[in-house]
Amino acid sequence: MSAQIDRYVSFRNVEWERRTAEVFDLLQVHFDTNTSPFWKYFLRQRDIAHYQGLDDLRVLHNFLPTLKDILEDLDDGVTLGKLEELEVLCM
């Protein structure tokens, strides 16, 4: 029996799960109001990633440049700031 390896061992005390959830909570407003056609695609890709066993931090990382561009265009400095903070600490 093999032990599960924590690939985020270097993120201890950074609270990456909480920070990732916080970014997704902030993004939810955009998902709900459909502020960009990208969101539908992004959410489908998130579902696929979860099916493959990937977590939300990986999903954000995969789409980081696009997310930053869209959030800048939407003038959502709060979400962009949280995303950039997560990028610096965990990506």
Automatic annotation (TrEMBL):
Keyword Transmembrane: no
Example GO BP: nitrogen fixation
Sorted UniProt keywords: Nitrogen fixation
Ranges in a coiled coil: none
Pfam families: CowN
Similarity comment: Belongs to the CowN family.
Functional summary from the UniProt entry: Is required to sustain N(2)-dependent growth in the presence of low levels of carbon monoxide (CO). Probably acts by protecting the N(2) fixation ability of the nitrogenase complex, which is inactivated in the presence of CO.
Name by which UniProt lists this protein: N(2)-fixation sustaining protein CowN
